[in-house]
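Researcher: Going back to the complex we discussed earlier. I've cleaned up the inputs and rechecked each line, so this should be the final set. Can you rerun the prediction on the complete assembly and write out the structure?
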Amino acid sequence: MSSNQTDVVFFDENGLRTDQRKPDEIRPMKIKIGVLSRANGSCYLEWGANKVIAAVYGPREAHPRRMQLAGKAVIRYRYNMQSFSVEDRARPGPSRRSSEISKVSREAFEPVIFSDAYPKAAIDIFVEVLQADAGTRTAAINAASLALVDAGIPMRGLISACAAGKVGGKIVLDLNKPEDNYGEADLPIAMTEDGKITLIQMDGHLTPSEFEEAMELVQKGCRRVLEIQKAALMEKYASIMDDEEDEDEIGSENGAEDEIGADDEADEDDEGLIEFSSVDESDAQEEDFDEVTDEMVEAFVNRVSETLAKDISSLIREYEVGGSEADVDLADGLFDDDINICIRDADLKEIDELITKMEDEDDDFDDEDCEDEETDIFVITAEDDTDVEEADVEESDVDDIDEEDGEENEDAEEEDGEEFEYDDEDEDDEEE
Amino acid sequence: MPGEVLSALKRDFIHNLIVEGKRADGRGFLEMRDITVLTNVISKAEGSAYVKYGETKVLVGIKLQKGTPFPDSPKEGIIMTGMELNPLASPDFEAGPPREEAIEMSRIVDRGIRESKSIDLGKLCIREGELVWMVFVDISVINDAGNLVDASCLGSIAALMTTVIPKDDANGFPSIPMPMRNTPVGVTVVSIDNTLILDPSMDEESLCDTKLTVITDKEGALSGMQKSGSGPLSPAAVLEMVNLARDRAAELRERYISNLSIRS
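Model: Rerun complete. Updated structure for the full complex:
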């Protein structure tokens, strides 16, 4: 953190920040999952002006062999900045900064990955920063988390990361570039779904009470990020569910929905807002609860999650039309053949309401398939006497692992000022 | 990529298809995959382009820095091309310093730009003998599904075409668009069983014995060429490949490069 520069104004007269955000608001986020054909899992993520892309390879044979671990998979994480991602060209290759970030990010994921399922294997996570604008390590972790899911790596839950900091004497969430450069403190953390901290760094100056305030805020930020990540997963995998369903019953639903389902890569833009109604769909299932077959449960779950996902995406789409351009200015074409999610804080509230509504309406339904799909974004409680399950079984799973969440590496001194060494006697590539 | 293990079965399959006059992905022998060129995708770079050849995805960023000119060309700017085979782009790529194929490919691209005199390096001089602009062309491979060289060539030119050189008030240097004089385009031709194929996919690339990358400028003159791979070629085959590449390069230039201009 550079010293406090008094000539930098961080808040306008309404208390809004340089990019018109409220102090506790995160920058808009765009997510596209499954963008690379060679990787086992991948995710492209924009957060404000940050652009990162993450890919996961594995589990695959750990190479070289001396890296293999007898009892579990070795997890490798590589955070790398493209030379053109920053204002002054960064020299290609690892720097001290990127090596450190790679290490702590890897440690952020180790507690949630079931690595003991794959002895002697390697799970490789690669994140490339294509454009940097403060907060790249948290953006990278968020993208990596989704890429791991896309790769089908078994995990106890998602990892979500966000930073808080102090600018102009005030604690704010998710620092932007000027705030990062001229602010007084930066506190990036990564959290598991059940609130355990797996990465924490801090640099700058915070009093104990400011630190408490920042911790409070940054956890809120992580939870918001988690909701966005889940919405992105829903968007991605709901469209796959559409496909499967369409194969069975083409033309049975209204034509528009079929069309969208049939085209996995469809740009969803032209789809209108789908009215949400789960009541009529569920009538059929309600008749006789004792004779519920697995297929029926599955069909129901598919339907509900599909409807919900579509509803969320229509919300998101509305938002996109509404005017994200101001904040996420470019590369709308980057990976445009894939799914696209862009959410801002305000929209999450709407989604929240929607989910609450879902919960109310679906109270009567039992289902066990729900858990394996990461669909706990909507909680469906069981009333069947045989299996009384809460949809948050996963949560309790996660509780079992008790990683030492007090990794207090606050000493992590680290200049986030993107300081890159110039390479003055260049690559000798001048042609003979 | 060389080094990729292609199973004998797959090899036979592709081979037999070609004998039958077909390609595994249904394309004609001289048909390219769908190409997309997007420019100005990275705002931190002075110029940038994102190029897709089917599933092959390459991102090129142009960065500018001021530096001392080489003693033998005190009035000329410097151009440097680097390529990173990011490990996320392919299971065969590893982290670490660029390997020989990355160096080879970036030098092919570099040669095309340099030898066709695409950039008027004299216009990049700020103070003779002391300060010139150094142009860094950094090619970043995002997904390798074959034919990286062609995608990199196209991406580099597209990025350069849309680069703006910032002004340098201290030295009285005004902001100018990148002084481009030429637009070299590279096209790779591979020969499998004496059948010439354009825009090889991953599998075709590893199956072929040799490939020839031909870079031609806007007059149709050759400005760079590279044979890569250990298979021999007859002189007649080389001539045929060059003609094929030149014709296709003209089409690509017309379609993807000629309409590019600096964003206002």
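Model: Worth noting: The radius of gyration of chain A is 23 Å.
Researcher: Good, that matches what I expected from the previous run.
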